[in-house]
Amino acid sequence: VLTSWRAILNSPSGQIAFFKPDVYEMERWILAHTRPSELFFAATDSRLYFTLALRNPTPLAWVTASDYTRPEYVAAAVRDLESSHARFVLWSTDPTLTGGLSGAGDNLGPLRRYLRSRYRLVKTFDSDFELWQRDLSADAPITAGGPH
After folding, report:
1. Measured CA angle at 35 (ends 29, 39), to 5 deg
2. What's this model's pTM, rounded to 2 decimal places?
3. Would you state the pLDDT for residue 138?
């Protein structure tokens, strides 16, 4: 279906033309809520690092729910997200990545558990992505004896 809808976004890397409103809205929102050089993990959309001038805190350009994404890289991504305290993670709502349809070779379990324990869902986009923001209360040190 050919559409006449289009939009331009002024990003740190220059003007970007969009022909899909849902993708434009996602990138516009992320641009408005981040700053250039900010640490940001885009689990399945590595082009955002260039277009929005964001930095990936992990060794992974993207993740897959297959053996392509090795367990040692998943462990490194979790360590790097924890040490960097990256504020946002962009995750796909694809059932294979959320764990709903995981199969043989899916090594993302530790990353999914980490995401749910340290981040909270703040935005869902029509483009099949969701944005998770670091939960600062999860960073509070645990004290002996618990809360008072």
Report:
1. 100
2. 0.85
3. 66
